[in-house]
């Protein structure tokens, strides 16, 4: 609160202003007070001073009159008879015993020539001295009047003396002598009352003889018998000399400003004066002024502090408001109304500011809304259809706070028109759709579920359009619903849907006809497939029977002829070709069976080791012929037995081994068997020609071979792998191939492992001697 003053602060300026005003008032009051005091005091002191000098003047006058009367009484007692005898005169004046305090320098009696004939005290030896040289003596003698001349320095004694000269008049009214009362002003005399008393501490009393401007007596002994200031030096003094009785202030010849008063002493015409330096006269005022200054300073300080504190209290709402406003501006607190602390001017200002702020916020939000609307309008003008905000009031009125430019295209009116009058859109609605449309709107308002409706409008030119409204409702305030959504022209879609409907009806009819045709065709195909399979089975049986006969006879013929004979070689060729033919027929038969779904997979206990070694044995001869080592690698964890179809398992392995041997010229062929993840894993690995990547999938298709040259080089039908893959599939397993052309191939077969229950005692590795025989023969 009492920090360093900030000169821009209102508080500081008001406090400073108040301070200046208070100081001004104080100083003016003090000045006028001291001036009036000075005037009053001057008047009081002047009156007092004047009354004092009047009193003293009166006293001096009385003393002079007293002395004069003594001298006169003495003069009266001196007759011409007495004067004729100086001794008698001397005796007389001595007898009178006039006290020394009356005439401290004695009394002189002269004759008519002004020569002293008697005098007291006698030790001054003044008898015989002629005083006629003094003007006032001569004047007294000539006029017979009492003379009270100004004091003079006695040429005899060199002392300042004041004389009273009283003529001695005889009966003839002639001046026969003089009585001279002498007062030595350098000694204690009746004027000493003045000499002893000071006026105040530094003031003086003065008795001035105006004619010679001479100081007759003074409390400042240095001035006695000195001349006062020459005319023109001190105007007040000059006025006194000219006869003014009263008081005045002037700068003395000594340079001191003095207050003075003057009163004439009637008997002598002297002036009784007193002077007092103004400094002393006004010392109490100056003391009081000093005191007032101190009090004023203290009061000013107190007033400053109090006004500072009071202003701080009064202006606090302003500084608090400015702090709040700064925080609002910096985003520390949200924008809000300022608190109105008191209903004073600051309160009124705050209220007015709050009102202004509310208006600004309102205008800002409206401007922001306007800008956002403009931007939105611009953006949504690129969106097909018409976007809108629709409001349904509690009283049933409705309006469009926002409508996009798309309305021009759909309704042919401007967005502003629709925003101004919502019923414009309703008016265009097809009469048949209006009820359903409003019902869907009211339903959406009630449930706050999305508002979806298709409806028609009829434009002024009579053109009809299908529109679709999709909007999301939200409740705003009491009973007011607000939708945000869009309206699109679905006329085209509706037309297409209608067309489609037409097509659909037509199509259904067509499909019915086609389905019936297809059903007939399928039944025919199935029948034909059955016929084909039956035919193939019959045919293969029919072919195989004579072929077996032929092969049996050729076998016998071969055995009964010499090895080198032509017949032997012919039988051998017949056997070879016959076996090939038999293999092909068997393959076709198997494939046909599979195609017809007639091939059944057995599930019986199988001795795995036996099946593996048998498969290898059957290939041994062909491998030997190509000098290819055949290897069987069985893992230790391979189960000895499992439930499977031994015939089909062997068929799979033989097919793979037969291919491996067939497509390998050098290196080796191996058969690996292991148990992994509840599966039996068989791998046939060779170092043959390999299979290009692009052929790896197709080789499992029937009648597919690596390339056309394969048939020429290696023979075969392209059925082996197709049959193998189907068999593996039928047995619930999977087959895959990994191969690098020129380096070899690896066929992997994975079959589910089914354990043999312990109760089964006997194992079978072949349930068809016939089949076994056939396969053996195929691959020889
Ligand atoms: P094919 O009777 O012609 O042997 P397969 O179905 O058994 O018919 O084989 C199809 C083709 O797959 C073969 O023509 C051959 O190109 C390729 N093939 C199969 N096994 C191997 C293999 N071990 N090495 C290289 N090519 C192979």
> Gyration radius, to the nearest Å?
81 Å
What's the mean pLDDT score?
86
Strand order of the largest sheet: 2-1-5-4-3
| Tally of separate helices | 20
CA-based shape: rod-shaped
In terms of DSSP E residues, the strand content is 15-25%
| Ligand kinds | adenosine-5'-diphosphate
Classify the secondary structure makeup into a structural class: alpha+beta
Strand count, sense and closure of the main sheet?
Answer: 5 strands, antiparallel
Number of strands: 22
Cα distance, first to last residue?
A: 118 Å
Give the low-pLDDT segments: 764-780
- State the helical fraction: 40-55%
GO molecular function: ATP binding
Transmembrane segments: 12-29, 292-311
Domain PAS: 372-448
Domain Histidine kinase: 538-755
């Amino acid at each position: 609160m009492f920090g360093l003053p900030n000169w821009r602060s209102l508080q500081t300026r008001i406090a400073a202003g108040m301070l200046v005003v208070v100081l001004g008032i104080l100083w003016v009051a003090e000045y006028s007070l001291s001036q009036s005091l000075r005037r009053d005091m001057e008047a009081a002191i002047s009156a007092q001073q004047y009354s004092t000098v009047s009193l003293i003047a009166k006293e001096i006058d009385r003393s002079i009159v007293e002395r004069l009367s003594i001298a006169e009484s003495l003069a009266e007692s001196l007759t011409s008879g007495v004067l004729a005898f100086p001794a008698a005169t001397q005796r007389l004046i001595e007898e009178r015993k006039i006290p020394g305090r009356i005439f401290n320098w004695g009394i002189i009696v002269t004759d008519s020539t002004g020569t002293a004939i008697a005098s007291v005290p006698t030790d001054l030896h003044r008898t015989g001295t002629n005083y006629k040289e003094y003007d006032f003596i001569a004047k007294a003698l000539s006029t017979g009047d009492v003379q009270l001349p100004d004091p003079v320095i006695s040429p005899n004694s060199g002392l300042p003396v004041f004389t009273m000269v009283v003529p001695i008049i005889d009966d003839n009214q002639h001046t026969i002598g003089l009585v001279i009362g002498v007062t030595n002003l350098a000694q204690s005399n009746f004027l000493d009352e003045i000499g002893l008393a000071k006026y105040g501490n530094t003031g003086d009393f003065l008795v001035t003889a105006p004619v010679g401007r001479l100081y007759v007596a003074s409390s400042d002994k240095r001035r006695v018998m000195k001349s006062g200031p020459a005319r023109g030096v001190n105007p007040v003094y000059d006025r006194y000399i000219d006869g003014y009785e009263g008081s005045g202030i002037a700068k003395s010849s000594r340079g001191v400003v003095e207050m003075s008063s003057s009163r004439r002493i009637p008997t002598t015409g002297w002036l009784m004066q007193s002077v007092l330096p103004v400094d002393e006269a006004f010392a109490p005022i100056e003391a009081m002024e000093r005191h007032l200054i101190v009090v004023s300073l203290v009061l000013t300080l107190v007033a400053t502090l109090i006004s500072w504190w009071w202003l701080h209290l009064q202006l606090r709402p302003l500084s608090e408001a400015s702090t709040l406003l700064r925080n609002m501006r910096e985003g520390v607190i949200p924008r809000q109304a300022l608190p109105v602390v008191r209903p004073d001017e600051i309160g009124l200002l705050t209220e007015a500011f709050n009102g202004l702020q509310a208006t600004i916020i309102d205008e800002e939000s409206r401007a922001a809304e306007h800008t956002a609307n403009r931007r939105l309008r611009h953006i949504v003008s690129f969106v097909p259809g018409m976007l809108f905000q629709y409001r349904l009031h509690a009283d049933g009125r409705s309006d469009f706070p926002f409508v996009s430019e798309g309305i021009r295209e759909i309704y042919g009116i401007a967005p502003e028109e629709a925003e101004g009058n919502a019923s414009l859109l309703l008016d265009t609605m097809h009469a048949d759709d209006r009820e359903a449309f409003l019902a869907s709107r009211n339903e959406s308002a009630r449930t706050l579920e999305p508002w979806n409706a298709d409806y028609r409008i009829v434009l002024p030119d009579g053109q009809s359009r299908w529109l679709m409204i999709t909007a999301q409702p939200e409740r705003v305030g009491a009973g007011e619903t607000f939708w945000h959504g869009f309206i699109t022209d679905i006329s085209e879609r509706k037309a297409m849907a209608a067309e489609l409907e037409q097509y659909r009806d037509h199509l259904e009819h067509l499909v019915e006809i086609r389905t019936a045709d297809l059903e007939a065709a399928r039944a025919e195909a199935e029948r034909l497939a059955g016929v084909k399979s039956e035919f193939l089975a019959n045919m293969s049986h029919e072919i195989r029977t004579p072929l077996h006969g032929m092969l049996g006879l050729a076998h016998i013929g071969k055995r009964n002829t010499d090895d080198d004979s032509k017949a032997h070689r012919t039988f051998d060729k017949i056997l070879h070709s016959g076996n090939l033919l038999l293999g092909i027929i068997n393959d076709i038969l198997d494939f046909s069976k599979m195609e017809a779904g007639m091939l059944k997979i057995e599930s019986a206990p199988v001795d795995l080791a036996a099946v593996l070694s048998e498969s290898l044995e059957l290939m041994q001869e062909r491998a030997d012929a190509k000098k290819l080592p055949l290897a069987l690698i069985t893992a230790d964890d391979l189960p000895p037995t499992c439930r499977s179809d031994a015939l089909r398992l062997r068929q799979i392995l033989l097919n793979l081994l037969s291919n491996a041997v067939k497509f390998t010229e050098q290196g080796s062929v191996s058969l690996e068997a292991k148990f992994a993840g509840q599966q039996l894993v068989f791998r046939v690995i060779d170092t043959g020609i390999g299979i290009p990547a692009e052929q790896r999938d197709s080789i499992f298709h029937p009648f597919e071979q690596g390339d056309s040259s394969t048939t020429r080089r290696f023979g075969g039908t392209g059925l082996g792998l197709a049959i193998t893959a189907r068999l593996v599939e039928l047995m619930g397993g999977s087959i895959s191939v990994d191969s690098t052309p020129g380096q070899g191939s690896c066929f992997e077969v994975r079959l589910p492992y089914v354990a043999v229950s312990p109760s089964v005692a006997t194992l079978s590795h072949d349930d068809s001697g016939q089949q076994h025989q056939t396969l053996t023969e195929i691959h020889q």
